[in-house]
Amino acid sequence: MKRQVVSVMLTAAMAAGMMAGCGSSTAATSSASSAAASSSTAAASSSAAEESSSSEAATSSSATETAEASSAEEVKSSSAAASTGKADGTYALVPKSAGNPFNEREADGFTEAVKAMGGTPVVSYPDSATADAQITVIQSLISQGVDSIAVAANDANALSAVLQQAKDAGIAVCTLDSDVAAADRAVFCNQAGVQEIGQALMDAVLDISGGEGQYAILSATSQATNQNAWIDAMKQIAASDDKYSKLELVEVAYGDDEPQKSTDQTQALLTKYPDLKVICSPTTVGIAAAAKVLQDQGSSVKLTGLGLPSEMKEYIGDDDAHSCPYMFLWNPIDLGKLAGYTSIALANGTITGAEGETFEAGDLEGSPYTITKNSDGATEIILGQPFKFDPSNIEEWAQVY
Amino acid sequence: MEEKKSLWKRITGSREASLVLILVVMLILVECIQYFGGNGHFLSPTNIGQIFRNNALTMLMALGMLCVLLTAGIDISITSTLAFAGMIVGMLQKNDVCHNTFLLFLIAALIGLACGFLNGLIIAKGHIAPIIVTMGFMYIWRGLAYVVSGNQWASGADVAQFAEFGKDGSAGPYIILIAAYVIFFIVLKWTTYGRRIYAVGSNMEAASVSGINVDKILVSVYMIMGLLAGLSGALSVSIYASAQPNMQYGKEMDVIAACVIGGVSMNGGRGSVVGTFLGALFYAVLAKALPLVGLDSIWQNLIKGIVVLAVVLINTLTQRAMDRAALERREM
Predict the structure, then answer these.
(1) Which residue from A105, A128, A199, B250 has the fewest beta carbons nearer than 10 Å?
(2) Phi, psi (rounded to 5 degrees) for A119
């Protein structure tokens, strides 16, 4: 009996020790190796920044336009745009996962922006692409006493408690890439509005198909919030205007962000719909897999969507030998920078995250940025329009990310 | 009369034959749905080619898994080995160290061989359950794949030349598959080494007593498995023109499932190359057919699971009936 008690206590002590050890190691900056065994979810997050949360659903484009207009006005009226002020604190970024070029570039942008302002950047990768892993990382950042935390959330709700804890500790909290509930953060740095993305993709389908014919969508998983929001936006836009009436969406296929399954699904689409004209894939893994299938087969079906330039360089071109005339994405470096400037502005109290506030964001094109509200009433800062990659600029961007 | 009866018995009696029947029934079904749905033939040359090409990795690794399962072992580190080897092959190209297709395949195979050797060594000499050892290595190799990648992917233009080998329409993957299946068929059926694997699997002690070096056999099957996993890593990069640290994540179960469908016993000693081929083929046809027959994407996994279970059940029942028949005859 005694022995059992002792052994139980020993085990407990060992477990506690291990936990403590693990905790501190995750806190260490950029524990890429610990992200090692992580998970397929890394693939999910590889679908670039796509899993933005549902709360950003459907920002009306007109709202953004007015916001842009008003921000321009404010610039004219001189000092309306407050400078972000000095930055001598420590500013933390928690990306979705390690081992993904998109998140890496995002972190680069963040680091660059914070350094440019004179602050100390901390990039803490979670050891897997889950909300649980992010909670551990955020907790250790709180105990380190950083001035701000910018997080690309792996789950819209699970981070709520820990982010409130950070707020209570006086830490400025913002999100980028993928949002949490509005009450848990000051503001969301949105890479591009859902509506803008839907519009860009729908217009691309219209343009590439020549105005009429069948098209299909190759998505990631059927539950991906952002994918579904974009697809819904596309459908809405298609129904709202007569010029899209000759386009027919034949199927939404799901490749689960696996090259193998995406390949299977693309081939199935080609077999099932001989008259198919365009495939639109708003996910980086899907678009690359589809591009390869179409190009290898010399198919006349064309492709567009959201993709990483370095992945897609080979497939982008205007002639028949290339499967993708052009595609879109946003600039992860700029998104990281925007999060950096936002963090500093929040920590300095220059902005609080309320609608209508304006701030300078260094050398970013859209600077100064104005905080807007999306249709759900959550505040966000929109980085800009989705960026178009075509044969003229793909070489250059493939070097970047 | 006697002759005919035994032929019929042989067909219903053998697991492979019953699997062929199931496969044929499924193919006819899918073909009908396809053809009468106005979508042309399912069994077109393009489709058949794609079935093999898209599932080349599973089919190749199933051979190694067969050897491992024959010794009553299991290896769940294979897709991690695949990712590790594939990632190294990818990075070698991205950094312009090596662009020779043959050399890259060789490197991947050697890495896999080394990974498998470690697996086998610890299992054989340390007498630790294979599932535990390979679980450890599953994390280690996957982790190293991430470390090697340095947060980058190798894809598109980086691996353009290498991807020519596995391109749609290229004979590369088929040649590797055919060669591997022929070699394994011969080795497992007609060589001393092959029979020793079976011997170790059916009764390890008996094999040891009869002078077989059990440890050596154990290490060797994990090395074979590693070799094939490494090779699959290079093949994966070549076929999909992309090396990502998370490639084929979770796919080790597909490989094990292919073996099990093919009648390979998880308890060792029972299974064949033909059965494995049929099992892997069944899995491949299923993967190809499900999106084609007009099933909603979100239902496909569910159906896949049900079909796999049903086939294994039918197979096992056949097997059991066969065993009972054999036993009855003996008692008489």
Answers:
(1) B250
(2) -90, 180
Facing residue for A263 by CB, picked from B54, B143, B151: B54
Tell me, what's the pLDDT at A385? 82
Confidence check: pLDDT of A119 > 70: yes
CB spacing of B246 vs A99 below 8 angstroms? yes
Residue type (1 letter), B230: G
B147 contacts in chain A (CB < 8 Å): 32-33, 36
Q: Determine the pLDDT at residue B96.
A: 83
Instruction: Write out pLDDT tens, residues A298-327.
Output: 888 999 999 888 888 888 888 888 899 999
pLDDT, one tens digit per residue, over A44-58 is: 343 333 333 333 333
pLDDT tier at A97 (50, 70, 90 boundaries)?
confident
Place of tokens 């800009």: A384
The model's pLDDT over A202-226, given as tens digits with 9 standing for 90+, comes to 999 999 998 889 999 999 877 777 7
What chain A residue is nearest to B34 in terms of C-alpha separation?
Answer: A272
In chain B, where the domains are located: 57-270
- What's residue A64's pLDDT? 41
Q: Could you check whether A34-191+331-384 and A194-329 share the same CATH topology?
A: yes
Q: What is the CATH number of domain A194-329?
A: 3.40.50.2300
Q: To the nearest whole percent, how much of chain A has pLDDT over 70?
A: 78
Domain A34-191+331-384: top CATH class: alpha beta
B267 CB neighbour count, 10 Å cutoff: 10
* Contact state of A99 with B156 under an 8 Å Cβ cutoff: no
Chain A CB within 8 Å of residue B171 CB:
no
Three-state SS string over chain A comes to CHHHHHHHHHHHHHHHHHHHHHHHHHHCCCCHHHHCCCCCHHHHHHCCCCCCCHHHCCCCHHHHHHHHHHHHHHHHCHHHCECCCCCCCEEEEECCCCCCHHHHHHHHHHHHHHHHCCCEEEECCCCCCCHHHHHHHHHHHHHHCCCEEEECCCCCCCCHHHHHHHHHCCCEEEEECCCCCHHHCCEEEECCCHHHHHHHHHHHHHHHHCCCEEEEEEECCCCCHHHHHHHHHHHHHHHHCHHHCCEEEEEEEECCCCHHHHHHHHHHHHHHCCCEEEEEECCHHHHHHHHHHHHHHCCCCEEEEECCHHHHHHHECCCCCCCECCEEECCHHHHHHHHHHHHHHHHHCCCCCCCCCEECCCCCCCCCEECEECCCCCEEEECCCCEEECCCCHHHHHHHC
Residues B42-95 have pLDDT tens digits of 888 888 888 888 889 999 999 999 999 999 999 999 999 999 999 999 999 988
Q: Edge to edge, what strands does the sheet with A172-176 contain?
A: A120-123, A90-94, A148-151, A172-176, A187-190, A379-382, A372-373
> Does ipTM top 0.90?
no
What's the confidence (pLDDT) of residue A49? 39
Q: Measure CB to CB from residue B156 to each of A253, A264, A312 and give the nearest one.
A: A312
Between A and B, how many residue pairs show a Cβ–Cβ distance under 8 A?
115
Query: What is the value of pTM for the model shown?
Result: 0.72
B248 touches chain A (CB under 8 A): yes
Contact list in B for residue A296 (CB cut-off 8 A) is 167-169
Of A272, A292, A296, the CB nearest to B169: A296
Kindly tell me the burial class for residue A35, based on how many C-beta atoms sit within 10 Å of its own C-beta (0-12, 13-18, 19 or more): buried
CB contact under 8 A, B288 and A264: yes
pLDDT mean over A229-233: 90
Least confident piece of the model among A275-289, A335-349, B154-168: B154-168
What is the rounded distance in angstroms from the CA atom of residue A8 to the CA atom of residue A313? Answer: 58
